[in-house]
Amino acid sequence: MAEIKEECGVFGIYDLDGNDVTASIYYGLTSLQHRGQEACGLAVSDTKGPIGNVKFHKDLGLVSEVLREETLHKMSGDIGIGHVRYSTTGASVAENAQPLVLSYVKGSLALAHNGNLVNTKALKWELIQSGAVFHTTTDSEVIAFHVARERVHTSCVEDAVLNTAKKLQGAYGLVIMSPRKLIGVRDPYGLKPLCLGKRDNAYVLASESCALTSVGAEFIRDILPGEMITISHEGIKSDLTLANLVKTRAHCVFEYIYFARLDSTLDKVSVYDARIRGGKSLAKSYPVEADLVTGVPESGIPAAKGFSEESGIPFGFAFYKNSYIGRTFIKPTQKERESSVHLKLSVLEAAVKGKRIVLVDDSIVRGTTIANLIRMLKEAGALEVHVRISSPPFLHPCYFGTDVPSNDQLIAAQHSTEEICKMIGADSLGYMEIEYLEGMAGGLPICKACFDGNYPMEIPNENNLQNDFEIHKI
């Protein structure tokens, strides 16, 4: 693909009045679809029924494709979790879809995970040496197995989750369903988002606040970095043990640049406002004389509006997006993926002909998509196309769940800004200045390692750790 991939989205709900939550999980996952379009699934259980009565369904595809009406009619329960997936670790195969559901000596456990661990091999090798057999290639299964193993030696599932989380290095937003409890855990750096909501006597955990809105739940608060929250008939309990394991916070800035939905609020910061601020900073850093500011649908539009407000150049639409064209990543060849851009987007010739255009987008990865759009604009009669990007150049890989390609595929790691400008056919090119990122994210402490290489934690070198055990995966 020519763009950064979404991460994953998690959703959990427990209705303490005993009402069925299956439909709510479906709607919650639909609202999180932007975070992952490769696979999805849900698991539900009846807390008043026998332990282990978990019903689940998962597969490759969109929520509407996998969780069809006839499937949902066969499922019911007052507690459940769901997941939408884009594969940052593990292949895109049905076996890797989530939630993961385990049956073990203490009953059942279902887990959904957003993020990526950096010490997966060490954790997995520990389990393999004790006889564990894996059915997926995801780090999420490693987490689930460690929780199950810890649960055998603890008095409650919360202690098992907490003991496991202490071992985890990396980024995670977890929702976990036990027979009688719903648990949410957020990594101590706050890299991945997680929030809490309430609808009548039902409590909801979700990656983004937009998912709460979709099921009629009121936003209560964000789960704090390093917080574990447990929802049961005994009430809500909070544990901040993990928060004390690190001294800094590092919220993923790309949530505000691209990942999160426009109507979400993450850690008290409006995503919409953040992107407007990003566009305004671009206009301050790289002003240009032009007739029209436009954004690449959909990701570049809010930043384009901010650029317009700061610069005084009128904002307008230059593209029509066909919402009924299939996803570009399923096209088998790069050439077909690139040609599908013309099917998804067409230029509004009347809006651009004879005009100098400022084209705003959230990022440039390989440069192929933006080059196609510039060519289309000029073929439609645009006199000039000045590109403005509401993030700094991608120079380093991400280890925490954002699928930034390797350096040899990152155009900015191989070429200067001037070279990229010529390669994509732009009349000028300006990236977000890195010092504006924290202000864009409302002053939050952020992780911007994909731009500056300063990771919030040490990245373990696991290359020497029994590399050949990978061949024994089932």
For the record, the CATH architecture of the largest domain stands as 4-Layer Sandwich
* Mean of all residue-level pLDDT scores: 89
The biggest sheet amounts to:
7 strands, antiparallel
- Described by the principal axes of the CA atoms, the overall outline is globular
Based on helices, strands and strand pairing, what is the structural class? alpha+beta
CA-CA gap between termini: 28 Å
Residue ranges: pLDDT <50 for 5 or more in a row?
327-332, 464-474
In terms of DSSP E residues, the strand content is: 15-25%
User: Please, how many domains?
Assistant: 2
**Percent helix:** 25-40%
**CATH class term of the largest domain:** Alpha Beta
Give the total of beta strands. 23
Strand order across the largest sheet? 3-2-4-1-10-9-11
CATH topology category name of the largest domain: Glutamine Phosphoribosylpyrophosphate, subunit 1, domain 1
**In CATH, what is the homologous superfamily of the largest domain?**
Aminohydrolase, N-terminal nucleophile (Ntn) domain
Instruction: Please tell me how large the radius of gyration is.
Output: 23 Å
Count of DSSP H/I helices:
17
Short description:
The protein has 474 residues and is an alpha+beta fold.
Written account of the structure:
It is an enzyme of class 2 (transferase). [4Fe-4S] cluster binds at residues 252, 398, 447, 450. The protein is α+β, with helices and mostly antiparallel strands and 474 residues long. The protein has two domains: 9-250, Glutamine Phosphoribosylpyrophosphate, subunit 1, domain 1 (4-Layer Sandwich); 266-444, Rossmann fold (3-Layer(aba) Sandwich), CATH 3.40.50. 28% of the residues lie in helices and 24% in strands. The chain is built from 17 helices and 23 strands. It has helices at residues 22-31, 63-66, 69-72, 120-129, 139-151, 157-165, 209-214, 254-259, 271-285, 301-311, 334-344, 349-352, 368-379, 411-414, 417-424, 437-440, 449-452, and strands at residues 9-15, 39-45, 55-60, 79-85, 100-104, 107-117, 170-177, 182-186, 195-199, 202-206, 218-222, 228-232, 235-239, 251-252, 265-266, 269-270, 292-295, 319-321, 345-347, 356-361, 384-389, 428-431, 446-447. The strands form six sheets. The chain has a seven-stranded antiparallel β-sheet. Helix 4 (120-129) crosses helix 5, helix 5 crosses helix 6 and helix 9 packs across helix 10. The longest helix is centred in the middle third of the chain and has 15 residues, at 271-285. The radius of gyration is 23 Å and the shape is globular. The two termini are 28 Å apart.
